[in-house]
Amino acid sequence: MLLLLLAVLLVGGYFLFYVTFIKLPRCKSSAKLHGKTAIVTGANTGIGKTTALDLARRGARVIMACRDRRRAEAAIQDIVQETGNNQVIFMQLDLASLKSVRSFAENFLRSETRLDLLINNAGLMNSGKTEDGFGMIFGVNHLGHFLLTVLLLDRLKASGPSRVVTVASKAYEFGKVDFNCVSAHRDLCLGENDYQLWWKYCHSKLCNVLFTYELAKRLQGTDVTCYSLHPGAVKTEIGRNTGFLWRLFFTPIIFLFFVDAELGAQTTLHCALEPGIEHLSGHYFTQCAPVLNIARKARDDAAAKKLWELSESFCGLS
User: Fold this and answer.
1) Of 18, 172, 201, 227, which residue is the catalytic one?
2) Cys staple from 75: which of 12, 44, 66, 67, with CB 3.0 to 4.6 Å?
């Protein structure tokens, strides 16, 4: 009886903790998206798939920008079956290849007449190098999305009002941008063990926040706005390539304290759909609300400008 009572207290305590501190608010927008076109990167799983599903349910034409055709087509089948929207399209995109990013942009601009939402969702925490010799995390999480956005800006402007939403993370608070390291080694820091990959991930998320901040400045006077966000602590596949000890330590934490992808997508959807937030372009959001008292390094004008110019150089744009 005592053990049963203890179990009930533990379950009840965990439930209260979950609804008080973990469970995230939902996007309240009732917007319909018929006639609108959205791109979602990394849309075959996790937050990306949930975002694509929601946009499709609202009537949007959704471009699933993914590397793996087989997984993307399986996700499309799920989305079409659940929403009844047949306007869910696969387009090949490998963010670890600047050539692939350019090819995707060319194919999209040739085949699609408008772009209303660009959701830069894809992210990873993998070791290795990209096709172009950049650190994998830097190349995919920041540089690939940077080039993709820049190549699609004219179409976004022509389709306005339109939005660019970039999924960052609260991990940016631990990040920094070491421009000497980036310039010399084409990576955010050195090393390939799980601990060092975590730091690279944090640095890349700061890049996402700074990129959005600088992008908003460059979009002033246009009908395009942009937002970065923390989706919450979400059960996704981002750490699927980490080592055994890392997974052994974090798996129970993730099981108990992380939310599912549906809840994790809500701030993305809020930034994409909520009316009246245009004046908050360039801001960082969490729990469907802007963070107004953000860390100073996330509003470093000089660092944001330097990151933009260096990214242009790496992508061959300058």
Assistant:
1) 201
2) 44
Domain count, the chain: 1
Rg, Å, the chain Cα set: 19
pLDDT tens sequence across 191-212:
999 999 999 999 999 999 999 9
Residue 296: inside a domain, yes or no? yes
Domain that holds residue 277: 30-315
Predicted local distance difference test score (pLDDT) of residue 261: 83
Mean pLDDT value across residues 59-88: 98
Q: What is the mean pLDDT of residues 288-295?
A: 96
CA distance 172 to 177: 10
User: What is the pLDDT averaged over residues 256-262?
Assistant: 70
β-partners of residue 162 are 224
- Domain with 111 in it: what CATH number? 3.40.50.720
Query: SS3 string of 113-160?
Result: CCCCEEEECCCCCCCCECCCCCEHHHHHHHHHHHHHHHHHHHHHHHCC
**Is 172 tagged catalytic?**
no
H or E element, residue 61: strand 61-66
Residues near 109 by Cβ (< 8 Å), separated by ≥ 6?
A: 151, 152, 155
Please say if the pLDDT value at position 79 is more than 80.
yes
Instruction: Choose the weakest-confidence range: 184-188, 219-223, 232-236.
Output: 232-236
Helices (H), the chain: 2-17, 46-57, 69-83, 98-111, 136-137, 145-158, 179-185, 194-218, 244-257, 261-264, 266-273, 301-314
Round to whole Å and give the CA distance between 270 and 286. Answer: 10
Domain membership flag for residue 23: no
